[in-house]
Design goal:
Layout lengths: L6 H14 L3 E3 L11 E3 L1 H19 L4 E4 L7 H6 L2 H4 L1 E6 L6 E3 H7 L2 H14 L5 H8 L6 H18 L16 H8 L19 E4 L2 E4 L9 E4 L4 H6 L1 H8 L5 E10 L14 E11 L4 H18 L7 E5 L9 E9 L2 E12 L1 H10 L5 E2 L6 E2 L2 E8 H12 E7 L6 E7 L10 E5 L6 H13 L4 E3 L5 H11 L3 E5 L1 H6 L1 E6 L5 E5 L3 H10 L2
Helix pairs in contact: 2-14, 5-9, 7-8
The protein binds adenosine-5'-triphosphate.
Length: 526
C-alpha cells in the first residue's frame, strides 16, 4: 500500500532523493549555487535522455515530420520579428522597504481572497477619479492603453454593483489574474502589503523586465553586437521552414521537430525544476493548409495527451487547461497540466499560431515563406500547430509521478519496512537492470560479471555485489530499476537466473541466455 504523504513531504523527499541518488544537483553547488540552474547527475541525465528519446521517436519516426537542430544564437532580427524584443517581458514590482522583487501576476496569485476584496474595493473607489496619465505611467511602456484600463475598471465596478453585495460577491476564485494593468493598479494600492517584510503601500510602480538573456558576438560589447540566448526553440524552426521543406521535399501538412536548450531570465525561479532560467524544450511545429488548422489542432491535442499517458503517467494527474485570454498570435491554446505536489502546472502547450510567425519573418527578412504547389500553382502561407513541451518539466513530472513510499515485507517473517520505489515506465527508467552475484565466491562473481558485460552492450546496467540481496533490491527500487537478476548456486548448475520485477516484487527463473531477449521484450515492446 502506497503511503499518503503531504505535498510538502512528497516534494522534500523527491528533492532529497534526487540529490542523494544523483538525479539532480544544484548548479555550482560548491559556490553556494546559482539560482534557477540545475545540473543533471548520472541517473538524471539517463532519465532526461530517455524522455527526449521517447519524444524524438514519437515525433520523427513517421514520414511527415523532419528533425532540426538550430543554433542557440540567432540573428537579432529574429527576436524583433517574433515579438520577443517588444513583448517578452513580465511586469515586476520592488518593495521599497526590503528590496524584494516580485512578478506582478505571481504576487497577485499569492494574496488571500480577503485581501483581493480589499484591493478591488480600493480600486473601485479610485475609478471615479482616474488620472489617465498616472495610470499610463503606472503600467509602463508596454501597457494596453488607458481607455482599455478604464473599461476594465468599469467592468469590475459593474460586476460589483450587479452583485450589490457589501461583502463583494464577486467570483474571486474564477477571476483570471492575467490583466497586467489591473493587477498593477491593485498592487500599488496603499492596502497592499509586502509578503516579505509586511509593510503596506511600499511597492514601486511595475516595470517591464525583458526575460531574454542578452550577450554580444565578437570583441565589442556594444548594442550593434548584441544577440540573445534563445528563449524558445520555435523560432529556429520558423526561420528554417523553407530550407527544410525544400531539402526534404515535404509539403503541408508536415512538421519540424527540435529539442534544445532555451533560456529565460525568470523573475521567480521556484519549485525546484519547474521554473528555471536554463531549460530544455521539445517543440514541433506542424505546417498545414489554412482551413485545416482546427482539425489538426484537435488531432495534435489528442496525440500529445496520449504521449504522456503512454509513458505511464497517472491519468488522474493530467488535465487540460484552456486559455481564455489568447496571445496576440494565437487562435487557440491549451496547456497539458500535471498535478505537481505544489499544484497543477503546465508541462506542454498546444497552440494554433496561425500564419503569424511565417508572415512576420517574411515581413522582417523580405524573403517569401510560402508553400507553392508547382502543379496547380496554388500558393499559401501555412498555418502552424505548435506542440511545445518542456523536457525539464516532463522530467520533473516523471519524478513526481514515479515517487512512491510503501510498506513492504522484509526478509524477516511477518515484518515490514518502508520501501521507496520510483515506478518509472521501463522505457524511461535510467537503469534498466542490475545484476547481482548472491555471494562473492564459488564462481558466482565471474558468472555475474560475464552476464553483466553481455547485457551492458545493449542496456544500461549496474553491477552490485555488496550487502544482502534484499538491500541491493532496495537500492535499485529507489532509482526505479525495473528488473534485477541474481546469480546463485543453481545458476552454476543449470544456467538459470532469478529475475525480480520492481513493482510486483515477483521473481521468476529464466535461462541466463534468454535474459537479453527477456529485457528487450519488456523494455522495447510498447
Ligand atoms: P509558464 O507560463 O509556466 O511560464 P509558458 O507558457 O511561458 O510557461 P511556453 O512559452 O509555452 O511556456 O513554453 C513551452 C514549454 O516550455 C512549457 O510548457 C514548459 O514545459 C517549458 N518551459 C517554459 N518556461 C520554462 C521554465 N522557465 N523552466 C522550465 N520549463 C519551462
Amino acid at each position: 500500500m502506497a503511503k499518503q504523504l503531504t505535498p510538502q513531504q512528497a516534494l522534500e523527499n523527491i528533492i532529497s532523493l534526487s540529490k542523494r541518488r544523483g538525479f539532480v544537483f544544484q548548479s555550482s553547488e560548491i559556490y553556494g549555487g546559482l539560482n534557477g540552474c540545475w545540473d543533471y547527475g548520472p541517473l538524471g541525465v539517463e532519465l532526461l535522455r530517455n524522455i527526449k528519446e521517447a519524444w524524438w521517436k514519437s515525433m520523427t519516426h513517421r514520414d511527415d515530420i523532419e528533425g532540426l537542430d538550430a543554433s542557440i544564437l540567432m540573428h537579432p532580427r529574429v527576436w524583433e520579428a517574433s515579438g520577443h524584443v517588444q513583448n517578452f517581458s513580465d511586469p515586476m514590482v520592488d518593495c521599497r522597504n526590503c528590496k524584494s522583487r516580485f512578478r506582478v501576476d505571481n504576487l497577485f496569485e499569492s494574496i488571500s481572497i480577503k485581501k483581493k476584496r480589499e484591493l478591488i474595493k480600493w480600486l473601485n473607489g479610485q475609478s471615479e477619479k482616474i488620472n489617465l496619465s498616472a495610470i499610463n505611467n503606472l503600467i509602463g511602456d508596454n501597457a494596453i492603453n488607458a481607455t482599455q484600463i478604464v473599461d476594465r475598471m468599469v467592468y469590475i465596478s459593474a460586476l460589483l454593483a450587479e452583485k450589490n453585495d457589501s461583502t463583494f460577491g464577486f467570483d474571486f476564485d474564477n477571476f483570471v489574474a492575467t490583466d497586467d494593468s489591473i493587477l498593477a493598479s491593485l498592487l500599488c494600492s496603499p492596502e497592499m502589503s509586502c509578503p516579505n517584510c509586511g509593510n503596506k503601500g511600499t511597492f514601486t510602480e511595475p516595470r517591464q523586465f525583458n526575460l531574454m538573456f542578452k550577450t554580444f558576438v565578437g570583441p565589442v560589447a556594444d548594442d550593434s553586437a548584441a544577440v540573445y540566448l534563445r528563449p524558445e526553440t520555435a523560432q529556429g524552426i520558423f526561420v528554417n521552414f523553407k530550407n527544410v521543406m525544400d531539402s526534404s521535399r515535404q509539403k503541408p501538412p508536415f512538421g519540424i521537430a527540435q529539442i534544445g536548450k532555451a533560456f529565460r531570465n525568470e523573475i521567480n525561479t521556484k519549485n525546484f525544476l519547474f521554473r528555471t532560467r536554463e531549460f530544455e524544450q521539445m517543440e514541433m511545429q506542424f505546417f498545414v493548409k489554412p482551413g485545416t488548422d482546427e482539425e489538426w489542432f484537435e488531432r495534435w491535442r489528442a496525440t500529445r495527451m496520449q504521449w504522456f499517458a503512454d509513458l505511464g503517467m497517472q491519468p488522474a494527474k493530467l488535465q487540460w487547461h484552456k486559455h481564455e485570454k489568447l496571445a496576440h498570435y494565437a487562435r487557440a491554446a491549451y496547456d497539458i497540466e500535471y498535478q505537481f505536489p505544489f499544484g497543477w502546472g503546465e508541462i506542454e502547450g498546444v497552440h494554433n499560431r496561425t500564419d503569424f510567425d511565417l508572415k512576420r519573418h517574411e515581413e522582417f527578412s523580405g524573403k517569401k515563406l510560402e508553400y507553392v504547389d508547382t502543379a496547380t500553382k496554388e500558393r499559401y502561407t501555412p498555418y502552424v500547430i505548435e506542440t511545445s513541451a518542456g523536457a525539464s518539466r516532463s522530467f520533473f513530472a516523471s519524478l513526481c509521478d514515479a515517487y512512491t513510499e510503501e510498506e513492504a515485507p522484509t526478509a524477516e517473517e511477518g515484518k515490514t519496512e518502508t520501501r521507496t520505489v520510483m515506478r518509472f515506465h521501463p522505457r524511461l527508467a535510467p537503469m534498466k537492470t542490475a545484476i547481482f552475484p548472491l555471494v562473492n565466491k564459488d564462481g558466482m562473481p565471474e558468472y555475474a560479471r560475464k552476464l553483466f558485460a553481455d547485457i551492458q552492450k545493449h542496456f544500461k546496467a549496474f553491477y552490485d555485489d555488496s550487502g544482502a540481496v534484499g538491500r541491493r533490491y532496495r537500492r535499485q527500487d529507489e532509482i526505479g530499476t525495473p528488473f534485477c537478476a541474481t546469480i546463485d548456486g543453481q545458476t552454476l548448475q543449470d544456467n538459470t537466473i532469478t529475475v525480480r520485477e520492481r513493482d510486483s516484487m515477483v521473481q521468476v527463473r529464466i535461462s541466463s541466455e534468454k535474459f537479453g531477449a527477456y529485457l528487450s521484450d519488456k523494455l522495447l515492446s510498447d
